[in-house]
Amino acid sequence: MKVLNQWAVVTGASKGLGYAYCQELLKKGYHVLGVSRSAQNILALQKQYPELKVRACDLDLSTIENVYKLYDLTKELNVTLVINNAGYGVLGKFQDSSLDSEINMLTLNIDALHILTKLFTQRFLRFNYGRIINIASMASFTPGPGFASYYASKAYVLRLSTAINYELKAEKSKVRVISVCPGPLKTGFWDRAKPSEAKQEYKSGVPVIAVDVYAQKSLNKALKAKRKNYILIGFWNRVMRFFMAVCPKSWSLKLLYKYQVSR
Ligand SMILES: NC(=O)c1ccc[n+]([C@@H]2O[C@H](COP(=O)([O-])OP(=O)(O)OC[C@H]3O[C@@H](n4cnc5c(N)ncnc54)[C@H](OP(=O)(O)O)[C@@H]3O)[C@@H](O)[C@H]2O)c1
After folding, report:
1. Residue 146 Cβ < 6 Å to ligand 1
2. Which CATH superfamily is domain 7-261 in?
3. Any coiled-coil ranges, and where (predicted)?
């Protein structure tokens, strides 16, 4: 492994996909700054990579002030990669789901990601170097009855990132803002998404890719992407994407509604 002397900032680093990204980035020789409400566990990765730097930062990014605080903390670091991964969902029919939880979710999934994307794009453009990877979802491609606000938040992530990436390519910049669109992964995501009375063992209904494999494949593709705006990994996710593109909206909405409310 070659030490790159470049920093990667990963939000939502303490577990799930974000933790797996931290592991992959260290394998590639990046120093890593991991952020989440409680990120200290990632410091254990330091032992495996004594030649690299691992920093943990405990910040709740659903508070806007903390998003700016995070950016300020990175000012002295040679950051070349940002992975906006922190996010969660509030499952349930719109009429029943908690408004407070949804507003908190939208602040994290949309506002925090938007602010960090803006500030780092501006900073990277000064050096014409750097990449932002925004974690969207297969949910970005369609409205999601039964999970409405989460799907809408991920549509925002994909549309924002795609438009910025187009601008960057049109201006012949080397900076990129790439979306990654995971399908269902077995992580803590589903424990947080469900209301407490609906907690039961996670069932995706489609074959699920292991989180570490997903992180490795999606990171490799997102780091290499030149023309692509978003990354899809796995046969079933491609099938779902194709289905969503060709299937009449009334069918996909009906199927999604059944799928989400049966969870
Ligand atoms: N799992 C799936 O099926 C799936 C599918 C498509 C897309 N995604 C997306 O993938 C991303 C990662 O999700 P995951 O599946 O890895 O879920 P996860 O296991 O629940 O991990 C979420 C991460 O975000 C952090 N986080 C949550 N709230 C935060 C806050 N307010 N401020 C800062 N950090 C916060 C969590 O750490 P703390 O609890 O310590 O704060 C954790 O590190 C999300 O954007 C999610 O929408 C997931």
Report:
1. no
2. NAD(P)-binding Rossmann-like Domain (3.40.50.720)
3. none
